[in-house]
Design a protein that fits this description.
It is built from 6 helices and 5 strands. By secondary structure, it is α/β, with parallel strands linked by helices. Strands 3-2-1-4-5 form a 5-stranded parallel β-sheet, with helices on both faces. It is globular, with a radius of gyration of 15 Å. The relative contact order is 0.20. The structure holds 4'-phosphopantetheine. 4'-phosphopantetheine is lined by residues 6-8, 35, 71-73, 100, 103-104.
């Protein structure tokens, strides 16, 4: 199976990394696809997000990191994949992701969405919480990969 794990990854968290490791383990090839949406305000540029994710995934030989624009259903078709993997932390994630999965199926009938339950210890982590806590001076070192932590400190000029 050639699977796609899409997201904003602004920035990638340890919750995302857990899903990436587990998805890579059950896939021949995993494409981590960062949505490039200029309309959405982000802390990190797409190039910064690609760099951070590539660094965090360098030990995983079957994982590649790319960005995409537009519709996920079209991106997946364009790279000859038919499987999208999503991590689900709680019932709110499930309701939202289930709706997305139905839309994506309508847009590309070949596409299947697989949900991986978030590991309990990581299920509170979100990119938005990381950004808020870090901006307010809190310690996010246990929520994100080390290279991302260094990058956040740089961005917030705390090094
Ligand atoms: O990490 P996120 O922000 O939850 O990721 C959301 C993402 C990028 C997976 C989702 O917004 C997406 O697939 N966007 C692409 C646009 C699209 O295909 N929209 C129609 C699906 S309903």
């Amino acid at each position: 199976m050639n699977a796609v794990y899409p997201g904003s990854f602004d920035p990638v968290t340890l919750g995302h990394m857990d899903i990436i490791h587990r998805a890579a383990n059950i896939s021949e090839r995993l494409t981590v696809a960062i949505l490039n949406n200029p309309a959405k305000k982000s802390m990190f540029t797409v190039d910064e997000r690609i760099e951070m994710l590539r660094h965090a995934c360098q030990v995983l030989p079957n994982v590649e990191v790319v960005s995409f624009r537009g519709m996920l259903a079209e991106f997946v078709r364009g790279i000859d994949s038919q499987v999208v993997i999503k991590g689900v932390r709680n019932h709110r994630d499930f309701e939202y992701e289930n709706q997305m999965a139905q839309f994506n199926k309508m847009l590309n009938s070949n596409l299947e969405t697989l949900f991986l339950p978030a590991s309990t210890a990581l299920s509170l982590i979100s990119s938005s919480a990381v950004k808020e806590i870090a901006t307010l001076g809190g310690d996010v070192s246990k929520m994100i990969p080390q290279n991302v932590y260094n990058k956040i400190l740089q961005k917030l000029s705390r090094v």
